[in-house]
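Box 3.1. Reading complex inputs
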Amino acid sequence: MPRSVAAHRQAVVELLTGATTSNGRLRLPLLEALGKALAADVHAPLSLPPFANSQMDGFAVRSADIPDDGAELWVAAPVPAGAEPAALKSGFAAPIMTGAMIPDGADAVVPIEKATPNAFPDATARDAVVDLPAVAPGTYVRNRGSDIEKGALALPAGTLLGPAQLGLLAALGLTAVDVREPLLVLLVTTGDEVVEPGEELSAGKIYDSNGTLLEASMRQAGLRVVRTGISDDDPASLLTELHRHTRNTDNPVDLVVTTGGVSKGAYEVVRQAMAGHPVDFLPVAMQPGGPQGLGTFNGVPFLGFPGNPVSCLVSFEMFLRPALSQVMGTPALRAVRTAILAEPLTSPEGKHQVRRGSVGADGMLRMEGGAGSHLVHALARANALVQIPVGVTELAAGAEVEVWML
Amino acid sequence: MPRSVAAHRQAVVELLTGATTSNGRLRLPLLEALGKALAADVHAPLSLPPFANSQMDGFAVRSADIPDDGAELWVAAPVPAGAEPAALKSGFAAPIMTGAMIPDGADAVVPIEKATPNAFPDATARDAVVDLPAVAPGTYVRNRGSDIEKGALALPAGTLLGPAQLGLLAALGLTAVDVREPLLVLLVTTGDEVVEPGEELSAGKIYDSNGTLLEASMRQAGLRVVRTGISDDDPASLLTELHRHTRNTDNPVDLVVTTGGVSKGAYEVVRQAMAGHPVDFLPVAMQPGGPQGLGTFNGVPFLGFPGNPVSCLVSFEMFLRPALSQVMGTPALRAVRTAILAEPLTSPEGKHQVRRGSVGADGMLRMEGGAGSHLVHALARANALVQIPVGVTELAAGAEVEVWML
């Protein structure tokens, strides 16, 4: 009985949970922390706003000075943004700019558009007056602490730090932040038929795209990556590489990911190399990407992805990426939406199929290539993974399907 | 009459179109090109797959050898992946692994599961035979060029290079790629009330969050950023900085973005500094982020964003980011979806309101903070910009709204 997609994802979450508890933290300048996950709660060292300030260009007033039918007030010295104004005396109105501090005594702002005259008097004018309508206390005043109070939780541990979160930390006066140290992944691509891009391609060989595809995916997800060269189909040479990297205490890897050699052929190098290590090779009820390896090697968490490029990408997106989001707080989960099938499709009985498609601006979903897991050109045209759950074997054009936006 | 959001976005597109035509290209190793835009069309230097290969572990056969009721065939030498096999003689079936080259003469693959016996004979066995069912020509054969033919367009100029696109280039044997040189932006935050994070905060002052928020947004969108220090509200010192950077021929900036000083208060430093330059300051029918500046300074495209952090982020997301996507090919457009309002909301007559909200796993949308453009803590909790178009002034709980996922 193959394992469900959800059950295998949960197994990856559990595998990573062990890997990450021992992981450290880094203190980084704010902008270097972009895309990383906060290591610990941040509490506000000051209130935001730090002082009551005006939401409008207008006149700061004592609201009690103005009866229901309005009043004429003396114009006080103007309050520019950034200045500490004198207290406002009764009977006066102070010209005030957006963001400027509300003077002591004032409790409301009348916008300049509602004043008569509706322009600020020249700064050199003496004894100027202004007619203002009545105003409720608090009008157009941004109170101290109305966004966040000093001491309150600003961002919880695990928060993914994007522009808005870093902007908040800057607004709080912070210049650096503790982030979770990214995991270091050892990425090994295998196969006698695979050669490095740029080398000569002899008959029967193909260029390795898995290494580039997965390293790019991992970097985008915030992981650090070390690569071995392509491992051939000799288990002994693969084992040598795995031992060398998993026993390197200077630069310990947190996770090993291999590609290829996990299915049921006659030459399955990863299965052979893992014999004697606590690693399961199992079918997951998913297409492509059904055969998966999961366990540990020398105590380091291990994932064995299948060898086709589309299977690698689907394995990463369906298992490792969401598990990282859950356990590490980074990367962000893929945006999930529904789209309308522009064409009918079929899916195998008993499998969760992951097809590649393009969602247009009109919300219509067109398939990119067939189900074949070697179709890397079709993959490169897709902007979405199409999720066809177990139990659905046919969908008509016009049907709604769930897609994950790449 | 304020300008519409769409009209202002189009004006930004036109402004950037001029800026980018003169921009160069960079040749980068594949992984360094992640997130950048392809500078020129890439045509396939080889076909994918480069040779006909097996989609299954099984037996390569001449389909004509097997009548409808099956046949017993001699077992030929096995074909591992990566090898160039001998031609298949009539009456023989060759054990073949997934991805291995189809031997000359063979035209179909019978999966191992359908063979009798359903396991490969030992490589040392002599005179082994296998019973196989009939098979249509082409079955489980991935034809040469079925993903892409040599010489065909692999990726068009402007393609955003993500993991799948880089994986395709690697599969084509390429090791480097020409990308569009990222724009260099001069980012200037202004305001007498604004001080750098880490400095002392005296009365009436606030920390600059716009610089961090916008630099992070710009970096995420693939731009390079240079910053001046915070400019005070003296137009002469702002002009000095702008002249210095826009006349620097060693490191020419492609775009100038300022924050603050664009509305109608008494001290609008950006408006004052731009007097005599071809820059318009105009209201856009949007809240927040209504006042906008657009033009050129010393021939360099210029955008003046408002001074509040939420207005800055909204200006970036509604105008600059989508214009970059359109003109430069990078970054990807924000994922757009609909969500269900968990609470009622109101929006001002005649304005496109952009609220901040959180879309939950259940598709329900909760507002983060009110409409106030100073609410940077609320912004940091949001995962979506909520789009409430002109003409909509009230929405009930349960209504569908468009959101852009951050």
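In summary: The longest strand of chain A covers residues 352-359.
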